[in-house]
Amino acid sequence: MSPKKSNKRSGLSLWAYNQLLTLTCLIGLGLSLYAYAVELHLEQNKNYKPYCDLAEHMSCTKAFDSQYGKGFGIFSKDSIFYKPNSFFGIVFYSMVATLSLSNSPVAVNGSLLLIILSNFASLYFAYILYFILADLCVVCIGTYIVNVINLILITKKHKTIRELNDINTNGMKKAT
């Protein structure tokens, strides 16, 4: 005798995942806006010392002002993508926060793809930060943590949507 499948789901509600994703994106957006403001101040005044410069080897200035701080460290100065990385963070977190308000499969899959890409970018930047720049940037590490949390949340939201679709599909089959 096989165990009967339950229509019960485990985990949080979609509303809760949406709220948590929005919250983490707002934190990521805040970090990105702060980084962008620091970068603008640094362009105007090379002597500017932001709050995120905690010590010689714990400096956001070192990361933001490095060759990797604009255009992901791969685009040339004449490229349209040669902008502070924090600019792309602002766009990214705004997009994911907006998409997280929807439970449509297209929005959830789009968010999942964007968040996976952001985690690959985090690994790339963490490698550069630690092994090339020999620095610890608290703002950067904060965004890496937000990206990992977002990956966990969007994966769980994606799973919940699949489970709900399965329940709805199975219920429709039984009714016919």
TrEMBL record:
KW Membrane (keyword) present: yes
Assigned EC number: 1.17.4.4
Family matches, as CDD domains: VKOR_euk
Domain of life where this protein originates: Eukaryota
Major localisation: endoplasmic reticulum
GO biological process, one term: vitamin K metabolic process
Subcellular location: Endoplasmic reticulum membrane
SMART domains listed in its UniProt record: VKc (SM00756)
Record GO terms (molecular function): quinone binding; vitamin-K-epoxide reductase (warfarin-sensitive) activity
Transmembrane regions listed in the UniProt entry: 80-99, 131-154
Vitamin K epoxide reductase domain ranges (all copies): 14-158
Alphabetic keyword roster: Disulfide bond, Endoplasmic reticulum, Membrane, Oxidoreductase, Quinone, Redox-active center, Transmembrane, Transmembrane helix
One GO cellular component, as annotated: endoplasmic reticulum membrane
Topology versus the membrane: Multi-pass membrane protein
Similarity field: Belongs to the VKOR family.
Name recorded for this polypeptide: vitamin-K-epoxide reductase (warfarin-sensitive)
Organism lineage string: Eukaryota, Metazoa, Ecdysozoa, Arthropoda, Hexapoda
